[in-house]
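Case study B.
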Amino acid sequence: EAGVTQSPTHLIKTRGQQATLRCSPISGHTSVYWYQQALGLGLQFLLWYDEGEERNRGNFPPRFSGRQFPNYSSELNVNALELEDSALYLCASSETTSGMYTDTQYFGPGTRLTVL
Amino acid sequence: AQTVTQSQPEMSVQEAETVTLSCTYDTSESNYYLFWYKQPPSRQMILVIRQEAYKQQNATENRFSVNFQKAAKSFSLKISDSQLGDTAMYFCAFMNSGAGSYQLTFGKGTKLSVIP
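Model:
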């Protein structure tokens, strides 16, 4: 069974540009989570999508946004890039069983975003 | 808000020896899950072990076991018979299952090096 996949592996942008990161969850998983892993800041929760809806977001400005598609894949968009947005962005997925969310999240390999 | 503290930024252990990684957390919730994730240099986050707070029995997965002390809010990871492939960053994580949001709160991590 294929795991969580993310693309691209690396992304280099300049300040002020927009970045789009993509995630495909494990087949059958409906929830997608995004985390930022920045040097010195550790892993921080960004966004949670389930069934096409944004369910929760972490303490990040509105220029971090995303969406979830009908096939449950997800996109993270970062607008007006700043130098401090340079980080590893991790996507995770989990399944919902009988309407109940399960606790275990499975992670993808991440996208390394570098802002110059 | 929940916090997770890993007080050992770096640790090393000889191959085949046993090592314990510490984790404490702070929460006022009664229903939650605790996890240890491993992130090798390849950067893929891998679930090592999970513990449900309502279970008194400590979780075990092969060479990995936890010492869960709910009253002390402590959740340490013991790795027995350490192998070179155990070299990685280890993150302790908390999930509040009762709040309707399922994001993970991570500690800063412990870098474990297994020495041949």
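Chain A has no helices and 13 strands. The remaining cases will be described in the next quarterly update.
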